[in-house]
């Protein structure tokens, strides 16, 4: 146990023994690494640590750092904006000029918002446009994918591309994705029925899936070809099966937003003679309408509860844009590091490559994460931060989030989950039966199957709750 340390003035001896016994006997951890840091929420004193100063891949526990930095830099009331404007002149019901849609990073734009944009043009008397529909995404740089994102993750919702002008298909706000629904046909042997939300013609559906009898086992595979918006559907679905749906990341979200805008224009009988294209909004345009997002305090609920990678990377770029004038990962991460240093973290002991933690290069020691969680308690925005964390055993997905089906029966656990290949993590706050509040960070790396990690972590949290007895306020 030479890598384990405990503050024996502030805890029972049983905690070290029970954790050691469990980790030694758990065969799924053979060859893996486990890092644990436990602190008193009241004093910040370390109660227990195992490899607490060793760097681990945090997976989505990285969002704790990104979230804290975003609340500090942007503020809990911060709103993103999208600006609708035009150049040229209106004669009769015709605009002789271009329409511009300038995105400034809002990940919460929905198809209904584009309907509102179209209605704002109708209010101007515009029913025909002799010009182009232009999307301006220059608020951020043109690099769409975060550092170290592996190619096989690109078509999943959690690997969606980052653009300053983007759209979400529903109120989970998975920006840059479309919902693909596959439902059985009317008869066995028929092709399945595929629905797209929103239905944009830039997406090509190639359907190789069929309907089978109710007694058959079926599986549907939905994949997007790299570098295109060609979505291929394969497999079988029983005739009595519920529809299968998946959120698929699009290729080039700026053009996706423009196609959603085109649908909205068509629905309002607004025609245009030009093309959909990307460009920078000139200074001489006439602003028609500015759409503001919900405040950051509200956006933090889907961000943390549902562990939204796209939001995390947008926050990083937005911090870089506002503080250093450049909306990219390099500048955004520089701001994030500075904020972490201001909170007292030893950032020189960390390697930060992205904002979401999907990178397999990002590394943070458990003691640094637990110290961050201690320090943020003193910040004015801490209530927003705490409220955004998933709560174990709470069924409502916007309350329990990624912990809604875990650790039922424990007093209270509010924590951020994390999963990437070979990695399972959990860091946050917990309350013992005696009412003591603890801060913890549990990080498992080099797992052969990361899906087995949550059960191991949940057992460790149970052990901590049962064996931690604080006897003094240090």
Our Rg estimate from Cα atoms comes to 25 Å
Shape summary: globular
Q: From the helix content, strand content and strand pairing, which structural class follows?
A: alpha+beta
SS elements, strand count: 21
% residues in beta strands:
25-35%
What is the helix fraction of residues, given as a range? 25-40%
Report the CATH topology name of the largest domain. Answer: Beta-lactamase
Q: Count helical runs.
A: 10
Unreliable parts: 8-12
Tell me the strand order in the biggest sheet: 1-3-2-21-20-19
CATH superfamily of the largest domain: DD-peptidase/beta-lactamase superfamily
Integer count of domains: 3
Specify the biggest β-sheet.
Answer: 6 strands, antiparallel
CATH C-level name of the largest domain: Alpha Beta
Describe the structure concisely for a colleague:
The chain is of the alpha+beta class. 26% of the residues lie in helices and 25% in strands.
What's the helix and strand layout?
Layout: E1 4-6, H1 14-25, E2 33-40, E3 46-50, H2 62-73, E4 81-86, E5 89-91, E6 94-96, E7 99-103, H3 111-123, E8 128-129, E9 133-136, E10 177-183, E11 193-197, E12 204-212, E13 220-224, E14 230-238, E15 244-249, H4 253-267, E16 271-272, E17 276-278, E18 286-292, H5 296-305, H6 309-324, H7 329-342, H8 366-375, H9 382-388, E19 412-420, E20 423-431, E21 437-445, H10 453-467
Parallel strand pairs: 6-8, 7-9, 8-16, 9-17, 12-14
Antiparallel strand pairs: 1-3, 2-3, 2-21, 4-7, 4-18, 5-6, 10-11, 10-15, 13-14, 19-20, 20-21
